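call fold target=Signal recognition particle subunit SRP68
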Amino acid sequence: MDITKFVVSHRENALLYGDYATYRAQLSRKLLNSRKKPNIATKSRGKFHPKAQITAEQISDNHEYLHLALLTAERTWAHAMSMKASHAADTKGMTGKTRSHIVSRLEKGARTAEKLADVLSQDAVSGAGPNDILEARAYAALLRGAANFEKQSWEDCIVSYAVARMIYSALSTSTKGDIYKDLLTDTIDPSIRYAAYQAKIPRTQPIPSIAKKAFAKADDDLVDRVKAVNPSVLEQGDVTMTGVTSAEGAPTTITWRSRGVKIEDASIAVAWASVQTAKAKLNERLSSASSLPPKDKAAAYDDILAATQDAVDATKQAIDELRGEGVTQSDPRMQSLQITRTAVNFEMISWRIGRNRVLAGELDGARATFDDLSKKGKKAQEAEQASERPKEEAPGRQIAKLKEKVVLYDGTLQSLETITELPGVANDQELFTRLQATSQYFTALKSLAIARSHSLAHNDANALALIRHALNQTESALPILSSTSSEESSPARNILVSAADFQTLHSLLNGELQRARALVEISEHNKNKKPSAGSSSSNGKPLIGQLANYPSSGQVNLENIVVYPPRLEAIPVKPIFLDVAWNYIDYPEKIPAGGDKKQQQQQQQVTEEVQEEQTQEEEKPKKRGWFGFGR
């Protein structure tokens, strides 16, 4: 029967181009057409007959009676919403007469939907399935909850919306569409949260827990029907929740910079518990598979990044709700939420930086290897493993991979700048200083990557200047990052830079600086040296071939040390010499015993003559008879 789909599709199609008044007018026309199909519409100038109660037999014979009841309930709901929308802009609010009119419309729609649900409950006669009965009960509870919401009867409102929530949560597992999830997130959950706030229910209780407690007041028949669809909903309150499912199991405090803050909102507590669970899973996965490539390690960070983002969204929503209620910044609840916001944002950005560090490669990309960001196929990797000497990539490809590393470093530096803008970070001098030192660490890595690209392009002077700048950055951050307290080693990287990584980078930059200076010195020497006529690299032999000869002039041509790249040249060695000599040397085993070469030649001539005579005798024609027969 698809009751929920029928209602939601009509609402979406009408409200997409119009308002509630337009929706009400459309429903009136559809009601008339629906009455004409079973021939129960009042004719023009005809006598009015009171509308009879819809029975289960009528619904079983013709589903148009079901649509008739749904359209009637929807028209009363649209009428109430149009009146509420028209008075939403009034500064004085709705008057008592208008509110009572809205409540009466919603009450009528709820009664119509409840009667329909009772009729469909006679499944043996109406032909309705279990899901159809639950959808009708959920729709009736949805309209009843809206009526109680306008009457400001908060306890009854929570119970009605809890019934609708539990039914839609159970049905969402048996269907692939998002209709039920949209109703939960857009209509039911905000109404339950507001009604719970008005009923003085603490925010530390999550919405699934509130709905679960309120649903316990429902009748036993409805409970049994929900159990038949999905029994886990009655245990957890929400099938989409994993891990922590109640306020009792969620953390109640969050620690930020050795300061514990009480978590005021239940959604933040549940999200923070999910973050702790994802962190444990990440450490377990990376510790068990340490030989994973960088991209697979980075993919393991997806769960914790999603969990931290949910915590950030929940904190922002809680702050917006308090601001909507008129709570000032000096309120203790707002102060606690601001600290919580800083903590969860710091956690999210920290893991984002850790993911970038993993993608950069070993030692945060400081190693002079280009395999970290390579996108080679299986065949290319197997070929390189089979060969003794791996094939060196072209300078253009190496520079492209260095550019990818620079992009990762830029993203990390932007994330660090975002952390400094969080509330309370600038006032924390110790944290602010450490963030600046971490920024200098990644700036040094960025300068080193750009210097290597200049070195590949043979711009040795630019590479030297960039490496010197990187070394200056590490020397500035050396007193701060080198004194990092030894913590438990975690396989998952985050914003914390260990002292070992920093010392390794500092030592590496010292070596790269000496290498860059040597390259610049050699290039300057080659530029300033005047080439001599006899020392041309193209005319003279390489120096490696003249090591036994002392230069009489006292000058050595350093531009022609070896032949590079090596050329393929013939080199005389003993096996080749023997192969050539085989054609000109007569070995003893080729000469007969007791004879010489001349005798061997004479014997060969005699044997050749005998063979020729034999062939001539065989070729002579034989005598034959008259008709070709032999005699």
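return ok
Residues 239-247, 370-375, 533-538 have pLDDT under 50 and may be disordered. The beta strands are 253-255, 260-262.
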